[in-house]
Amino acid sequence: MDGNVGYIWFNITDNRRGKDAFLLDIVVEEAHRGKGYGTETMQALEQTALSLGVDRIGLHVFGHNVRASSLYRKMGYEV
């Protein structure tokens, strides 16, 4: 095992409203799920975005992805 738990992929764009980040993908490998890595990853995204001057973070999640939907709600994200 190489020590990787997963990855996160996001993009930042500048527009008239300021800087927006959009979460394109987040993956926590199956063996590591349920251990808090998703929460830690989202917190790292938020800290990084803040340090880069991002005003908003957007994302999408499929309705059937209950685990991700629960994480995002827990983190304070809204539909």
Short description:
This protein has 79 residues and is α+β, with helices and mostly antiparallel strands. The protein has two helices and three strands.
What descriptors fit this protein?
Aminopeptidase, three-stranded mixed β-sheet, 3 strands
Write down the CATH class: Alpha Beta
CATH-defined fold name: Aminopeptidase
**CATH architecture descriptor:** 3-Layer(aba) Sandwich
Count of β-strands = 3
Termini Cα gap: 37 Å
- Based on secondary structure, the structural category is alpha+beta
CATH superfamily: Gcn5-related N-acetyltransferase (GNAT)
**Helix content, binned percent:** 25-40%
User: What's the pLDDT, averaged over the residues?
Assistant: 94
- Computed over alpha carbons, the radius of gyration is 13 Å
Provide the succession of SSEs: EEHEH
Strand order of the largest sheet: 1-2-3
Folded structure, characterized:
This protein has 79 residues and is α+β, with helices and mostly antiparallel strands. It has a single domain (6-74), classed as Aminopeptidase (3-Layer(aba) Sandwich). Helices cover 30% and strands 32% of the residues. The chain is built from two helices and three strands. Strands 1-2-3 form a three-stranded mixed sheet, with helices on one face. Helix 1 links the parallel strand 2 and strand 3 (56-59). The longest helix has 15 residues, at 37-51.
Helix and strand arrangement:
Blueprint: E1 6-15, E2 18-28, H1 37-51, E3 56-59, H2 66-74
Parallel strand pairs: 2-3
Antiparallel strand pairs: 1-2
